[in-house]
């Protein structure tokens, strides 16, 4: 099994029997500015810091690729609902200055079998940088 990366104890991996990876990763960052009005002059911007970064990506879970979609969704939900603080590592490189929390997940439950078992799901995941105190 080739490990592509991890989000805490959630492993992104590829092997002959399973595919559990991400796609479409987007990393957003922004700065904060205060605007000061000045009499008969242009406004003045003052840098006041930075906003927390965010990362979003999608994961496809398919029973046909050796993954139990509902089990993987439940792992993500548990981390989201418990506010678990996790390091994002891809290719042995940590991403971001701080660790991350799952801010939001959106789940597309696409295909079920005749017994109601989930076969294919697509999950959109939004992470928020967690700087601590």
Automatic annotation (TrEMBL):
<dbReference type="InterPro" id="IPR009734">
    <property type="entry name" value="Myoviridae_GpU"/>
</dbReference>
<dbReference type="Pfam" id="PF06995">
    <property type="entry name" value="Phage_P2_GpU"/>
</dbReference>
<protein>
    <submittedName>
        <fullName>Phage P2 GpU</fullName>
    </submittedName>
</protein>
